[in-house]
Amino acid sequence: MEIVIVDAGLELHELAAMGDCCSANQAPTR
Amino acid sequence: MALAHYLKIYPSPSDPQQVLVYSTRRAALLLLPRTALAAAETDTLPAEAAGILRRAQVVVDDGAVERQDVWRMNEELNRVSTGLVVSVVLGMACNFACAYCYEGGLKGGQAMDDAVADQLVAYLKGRYVAESRNRLTIDFYGGETLLYAERIKALAGALKPFVEARGGSFEFTVVTNGSLLTTALVAELLPLGLRSAKVTIDGPVDIHDRCRPFRGGAGSFAVILANLVACAELLRINIGGNFTRENHHRFPELLDHLGAVGLTPERLGVVKFDAVMQVNDAVAAPEFSGGCSCINEPWLAKAGVALRGEVLRRGYETPKITPARCMVEMDNSLAVHCDGTLYKCISMIGHPGYACGDLRQGFDEGCRETYCVNHWQREEKCRDCVYLPLCYGGCRYMAYQRDGHMARVDCRKEYLDATLEAMLRQDLKYRYGQG
User: How far apart, in whole angstroms, are the C-alpha atoms of residue A28 and residue B247?
Assistant: First the structure.
């Protein structure tokens, strides 16, 4: 039973450190 | 133990005996034998496999606890966040005349003066200490941000030593049209904490120069590209671009051009293209009518996925699909206008009904209600939605454009139904070299 973890994803603290959508420069059209 | 609720399961692209499993809660991506999936469904997984899948949040011990955790994710993020993230609009002057500018009606001479700058420094120092932060990040916006380079230097010069003296880290980014991003300026800003610049290029030269000309009408493409080539060694540069239904198919030409002038994947940060939004409020460019008013427009799913694939195929970095964090929901995120007014969303600057205080008085009570924090909890369709962690009600600015208020969610379900599998397959193939 081979399970392949392609991406382990994010722990909560990693997500917290990522910043919000807009500070990640995903704000609407500028 | 049971399969998690916040999972999407798709056929494996290469092996019919496998499935591709994605946790919308954790953004974990796995390839599982179908036998393992069946064992997880019947709670008959061997202990080792169960441990692996539990850590990836593919299986959970208690479905009720899982849902409660997802509902409380923003509260938890607020609890563990240690930074203070501030979007600062330095002024509204701009040397460009973009066809679709959503600040169009706000553009002009208004700029942060010395008194407001002093208030901003005092406000941020106060919050940094009072909230025991260990990181201060400022995203500088305009107008054209780099018309205010002296103000950036003064603000960073005041805040960086303050933060570092307390053992914290300070950094800032600039969102700029790129026309003033010179090596000389970057060399001055780097020691003050400049981390990255986001520059917008709207496709190949003819499209870009039509969409994003200088105010006098001259094309800006050549100036920007020359600056980027010169600065890419010094600074992480992220590329954005705004496409329409009519021109998206030509954006791959820009990617080829970037490579041809030496802006290869290893010399750039993130590359990400987004649809121009149709902005209907009083502060937008009033004559523009080619934008997208809803993320669920069918052409957008196809165009967005195709462009993402073109970016990844050429080896450029682009964001993964991860849980959404709207700054409205984050206690440690705020936006400051150049007049000292506070907002909870950078896109709502200039909308008086969404001003939430000022630098002298701080945030008003009632700010959470103004921005409809946790509005998704009132929506039946959100409560059990598998995409909830990726969305949490979507973009309030989009909802505001649609309804004139933010009380209802900006549902992403149709869009994610149409795109998520394809985007995960892109990641599998190009980002991870599998499938």
Answer: 18
User: What is the number of other CB atoms lying within 10 angstroms of the CB of residue B222?
Assistant: 12
Give the CATH number of domain B85-313.
3.20.20.70
Closest partner residue to A23 among B101, B137, B277, by Cβ?
B137
**Token pair for B51:** 């441990």
Residues of A in contact with B173 (CB under 8 A): 23, 25
The DSSP line for B11-76 is E-SS-TTEEEEEETTT--EEEEEHHHHHHHHTT---HHHHHHHHHTTSEES-HHHHHHHHHTHHHH
The DSSP bridge partners found for residue B170 are B136
Q: What global pTM score does this model have?
A: 0.93
Q: Which of A2, A11, A13, A25 to mutate to test the interface with B (most CBs of B within 10 A)?
A: A25
Give dist(CA B30, CA A8) in Å, integer: 8
Cα B90 to Cα B340: distance, rounded to the nearest angstrom:
10
CA distance B292 to B415: 13
Considering only the beta carbons, identify the residue of B27, B77, B432 that sits closest to A16. Answer: B77
- Quickly list H helices, B83-135: 114-130
Q: What interface predicted TM-score (ipTM) does this complex get?
A: 0.89
Q: Are B318 and B271 in contact (CB under 8 A)?
A: yes
| Residue ranges of chain B assigned to CATH 3.20.20.70 | 85-313
Half-sphere exposure of B251 (CA within 13 A, CB side): 29
Q: pLDDT digit of tens for each residue in chain B (435 aa)?
A: 999 999 999 999 999 999 999 999 999 999 999 999 999 999 999 999 999 999 999 999 999 999 999 999 999 999 999 999 999 999 999 999 998 886 766 777 899 999 999 999 999 999 999 999 999 999 999 999 999 999 999 999 999 999 999 999 999 999 999 999 999 999 999 999 999 999 999 999 999 999 999 999 999 999 999 999 999 999 999 999 999 999 999 999 999 999 999 999 999 999 999 988 766 665 555 455 555 556 777 888 999 999 999 999 999 999 999 998 889 999 999 999 999 999 999 989 988 899 999 999 999 999 999 999 999 999 999 999 999 999 999 989 889 988 999 999 999 999 999 999 999 999 999 999 997
